[in-house]
Amino acid sequence: MSRKIQPSEITPEALYISRRRFIKKAFLSTSASLLIASCSTQESDINPTLDPELSAFSSQTDDQGNILTPYNDITGYTNYYEFSTSKTQPTELAKNFVTDPWIIKIDGLVNNPTTLDRDQLLSMFESEERIYRMRCVEGWSMVIPWKGFPLKKILDIVEPTSDAKYVRFETVFDPEQMPGQNNPSFPWPYVEGLRMDEAYHDLTLLATGIYGKNLTPQNGAPVRLVVPWKYGFKSIKSIVHIEFVDEMPVSLWMAVGPSEYGFYANVNPNVDHPRWSQATERRIGESGRIETQMFNGYEDEVAALYEGMDLTINF
């Protein structure tokens, strides 16, 4: 979570806008920009981080000085296989996706099972502003200003029993709205899971928005998980079921490729994917590649969760 920015550290607006325009023009002049440009929407010439209607955030960088990824890149370049395996098609295919009404069932090994509708979810928990980096296993990353609330607030309400060891999450299954779910190569619906201590960690977020606005359908509306020290496929979208269980859930990607995708999915540059290196990443909206940080840069906060574990086996 970002530290409080002091007034003396804030770049004057005119200088900030001038600098961003210069960087953007220089970047678009390079051949590397062709890939990024193909991921943007028709409004890619607008820098929405400067639009007061889109940005309620006090900082334009995260706590390590990384510049926020533009809104149109976040919403125009996504991994959402329920709609398409393409990174750009979900933006168009999801535009009419219905997210209201929406019901989330929360049950399993808990004292207080419950259901929450969309309005309850958005009103009963106070939203927080959090800027998190997100690293995808394919080698690209973003810096995203989320709004949402810690998952542990849900846990405090339902009160998991001592038998609960894991939390299992499930995405909506609706092939009529989600054409990608007609692909028989995947065992739908999408399933993911966390250990209880991971679920209770303060960094673990149930996100309901980006840049101060509600989530777009292609980004997982109306609510998704965000676990910033793990690869993006752990941050399951469009959740309809949260279940507390005593056995490790088999996630969709574990079922599809158990030798490539493990339960933990912690960002670890020292453990390569079988088909590519994880040592570097490409930040969307920027040129070149940067070194991948252990636990995606959140090592100080989460390393203790895995003390004594062999992370080359528990990948």
Task: Describe this entry's structure for a reader.
This protein has 315 residues and is of the alpha+beta class. It has one domain (7-306): Oxidoreductase, molybdopterin-binding domain (Sulfite Oxidase, Chain A, domain 2), CATH 3.90.420. Helix content is 19%, strand content 20%. The protein contains 9 helices and 12 strands. It has helices at 13-28, 33-37, 71-76, 89-93, 118-124, 152-158, 196-200, 252-256, 299-302, and strands spanning 103-108, 114-117, 128-135, 140-150, 166-171, 191-195, 205-210, 213-214, 224-226, 239-245, 280-283, 290-291. Strands 3, 4, 7, 8, 9, 11 and 12 form a 7-stranded mixed sheet that branches. It has a 5-stranded mixed sheet with strand order 2-1-10-5-6. The longest helix is centred in the first third of the chain and has 16 residues, at 13-28. Residues 1-53 have low confidence and may be disordered.
Instruction: Report how far apart the termini are.
Output: 25 Å
Second-tier CATH architecture: Alpha-Beta Complex
Apparent shape = globular
Portion in strands? 15-25%
Helix and strand run: HHHHEEHEEHEEHEEEEHEEH
> Which bin fits the share of residues in helices?
10-25%
Total number of distinct structural domains: 1
Taking the sheet with the most strands, its summary is:
7 strands, mixed
Q: What's the mean pLDDT score?
A: 86
State the low-pLDDT regions, or none.
1-53
User: Given the helix and strand composition, which structural class is it?
Assistant: alpha+beta
